[in-house]
Amino acid sequence: MKTKTKQISFKEELFLESGRMLSPVTVAYETYGTLNEAKTNAILICHALTGSANAAGTYSKDDENQNVGWWNDMIGAGKAFDTDKFYVISSNILGSCYGSTGPASIDPFTGKHYGRKFPVVTVKDMIKAQKRLLDYLGISKLYAAAGGSLGGMQVLEWAVTYPEMVERIIPISTSGRITPMAIAFNTIARIAITKDPNYNNGDYYGRTAPKDGLAIGRMAGHITYLSDVAFHKKFGRRYATFEGIYDFGGFFEVENYLRHNGYKFTERFDANAYLYLLKAMDIFDLTYGYSSYTEAVSRISARTLFITFDSDFLFPPYQTEELVKIMTEAGNKPEWVQLHSDFGHDAFLLEFDSQTAEIKRFLAN
Amino acid sequence: MKTKTKQISFKEELFLESGRMLSPVTVAYETYGTLNEAKTNAILICHALTGSANAAGTYSKDDENQNVGWWNDMIGAGKAFDTDKFYVISSNILGSCYGSTGPASIDPFTGKHYGRKFPVVTVKDMIKAQKRLLDYLGISKLYAAAGGSLGGMQVLEWAVTYPEMVERIIPISTSGRITPMAIAFNTIARIAITKDPNYNNGDYYGRTAPKDGLAIGRMAGHITYLSDVAFHKKFGRRYATFEGIYDFGGFFEVENYLRHNGYKFTERFDANAYLYLLKAMDIFDLTYGYSSYTEAVSRISARTLFITFDSDFLFPPYQTEELVKIMTEAGNKPEWVQLHSDFGHDAFLLEFDSQTAEIKRFLAN
Predict the structure, then answer these.
(1) B286 vs B161: CA distance, rounded Å
(2) Which fold has domain A2-179+286-364?
(3) pLDDT score of B315 more than 90
């Protein structure tokens, strides 16, 4: 399946949760499958922290260096999100750097990159931008919304903010508010990036980017995406270098992996976008705008399938247990499937078979 | 109890595991209680990563700014390590910056700080330096050796390398080799420090120290010293600043804590020492010099009391379970007590009552 990322720009101001405004708001998106005449078969896929609209298929712009969508094993003909039946929509989130408006975009008032002048955006702001895309596509109701991690937060926010618009939700490896430990990991990234001399208070476009800080931040993230078991299985205590074990500069395979992936990440992601998305993640709390977490979560009327993985320590399953409890007491009948995996938080991007079985069953009803 | 750190220098070269030599070797130490005539009541206390010889009492050099020993609640008259009965010895480890020879010491060949010219030192090298101190004090056998974390590694190394010299060991919250996940956390520190422009390849003495890098490294460490439950109890999702929740510069209490303690740490610790001690921790593996982990661990003949805490994810209790299994199969009868605590790895520095009960009972036999 070849795909192409499209962009749509909305001139009308988007009023952000912070009270600030953003205009224009560009949303990058892809669609897979066909919208039926009644427009009742649309499924919105929400991506995680550093994902893009390219959720499925092969990116057609760059055939030689074929990028495969981040959930390509889940979206397509006969797959979990079956494009023979459903019209699947995937959009890049507000604040990101893959085509939607973010800090690396040009501020129309200055003609320069927003940088740190970009307003703080929230998960609610992200879904408001997604709603504009749905309005543009003529879709007033979603058959389902699904996503993992920060994507799952968007899914929950959809069900709380626009309960009448989402018939089904599949929040995976997520939570209605992240743990203080998760904020602690984001803190490492925040300080590493902002203290990198090349960060220059966010004004580094056209100059050397703060690669060391961003790489360190990404490495801290990578630790949280894995699990203790995954570290043992993936790396053990194998030594990576030809330097001796007693050489100051030698390192283990795990360090090699973190270094390599940390710096590789800096080639594809903008440091400011990373900071703004971490911020959105930290301050996300379904409670905002309501009198309690319970009141907010109780608004969810969508049929719900929660998926968690037992080794996920970034979004511990007890957070989903809490959501299930609140929803059940409010009269909803959410399903919750806890799957086994050694992959930790990353499991939703790797464990396809077990997720597919659950999602197919859930979407068939 | 007032204490004073003493120093003893040994001119004779210390042959390091790496094949390199170090001379002179200075060891900073403190003693509490009285050595009996038969010299049979000596207990060696081994400190963790950033500890010092000042394990107990009030540091007499600085009465106005009273530093209290890091295990003051455990060492003293009537305490777990009862100074009415025992002669307690605590020394600063090789490679540290609290009085023993380390990278911040002056290299006698150049008259300058060693910096990165300092050789990589191992846990075995550390205990060899401690052995010199014991020889100097006239002690040929220890009633016991005890310590947590990197201190526990030294205790295990003592029992494997000099089985005839240690009658009892109390390794706490430790392991015979750290997990790849622990190495991953150390990687964050290593890269943050060495990429700090002020690091200058370790040659920063008399200039600006790499404070940002060291602070970031310490913050990564702090995450591992706590536990998910501790993060919830200590910080929750409380917001710390007067800035609004939508302000880019605002932060949660957990971030405030990490920032504050990360930078505070840079006032008391040397970045090179931190790097060398992390290295010693990473490459520590009881197996070195033997044909297997089992062979090495089976050498332990000391009576052993292992203590672990259930919420410790840096040194997971399953590592102690493995040690207990090997020792038991080798005919030793180690005791292992798993204590409950929400404090995670830090518990051995905080949970005094439960540890005291176990240690008193064990030392009485």
Answers:
(1) 9
(2) Rossmann fold (3.40.50)
(3) yes
